Amino acid sequence: MRIAVIHEAPRVTEHSKEILMHIKNAGHEALYIRISSLNVDISTGEIRVSSRKGKVYLDGAFPRGLGSYVSAELFSKRISTFRALEYQGVRLVNNSYAIEKSKDKLVSLMLLSRAGVPVPETVVTEDPIEVMRIVERRGEVVIKPIMGSLGLGSVKVSDPDIGYRIAKTLLCQRLLGCPPSPLCKLLWPQPRQSQQTPRQPARP
Asked: Domains in the chain and their CATH numbers?
């Protein structure tokens, strides 16, 4: 079987190396493919994924990364590329719909909330004035971009003016057509609970 790790990193990451090693050890052909090198060709009744070398033939793939900072257009194209691979019969781990939901933190939070899973109190807004007011009311919040992973771009803020400036910067980036996402996600940390295990009484 031909199984690929699909990542945008120009160099193979350590996690990707580990996956590729397991693929080879299982007796399969292992490939490392950058997502930006893949094209989607569409004609009547046919959808195929190709590269400069022609049609991409795979039996399975592990999507690992879409890139550190991608615009909405690139995000859509790369998710659609994974979907096109699925249309070709390529088995993805995880599938394109799961990847799309996990990358969109607003959708993720709403799904978790509806399922009754505890989530941090969160406000999503495009209004820098609202960000400033929320910081004034809450005292300390964490400002995060909607799209992203690994906590990149997260800032803890307790000064309303700084909160306003951060939100304004994100808004200006949207007007200039630059990533990251223009939407601010604000959440406030919950008090830490003790993780110590209660001591059991000594046996007589």
From this structure: 2-102 (3.40.50.20), 104-187 (3.30.1490.20)
Please list the rounded mean pLDDT of every run of 10 residues in the chain (204 residues): 94 94 97 95 91 93 82 86 95 91 83 91 84 86 72 78 82 46 49 43 44
* Residue 151 confidence (pLDDT): 61
- The tokens for 40 are 């989607």
* Structure-token pair, residue 106: 């607003």
In 3D space, the residue among 104, 74, 103 whose CA is nearest the CA of residue 177 turns out to be: 74
For 10, phi and psi rounded to 5 degrees?
-65, -30
- Cα–Cα dist 57/41, whole Å: 14
Instruction: Select from 71, 36, 35, 67 the least CA-distant residue to 180.
Output: 71
pTM for this predicted structure? 0.68
Residues 6 or more apart whose CB falls under 8 angstroms from that of 96 comprise 63, 79, 82, 83, 85, 86
Which residue from 183, 184, 176 is spatially nearest to 135, judged by alpha carbons?
184
**Distant-in-sequence, close-in-space partners of 97: CB < 8 Å, separation ≥ 6:** none
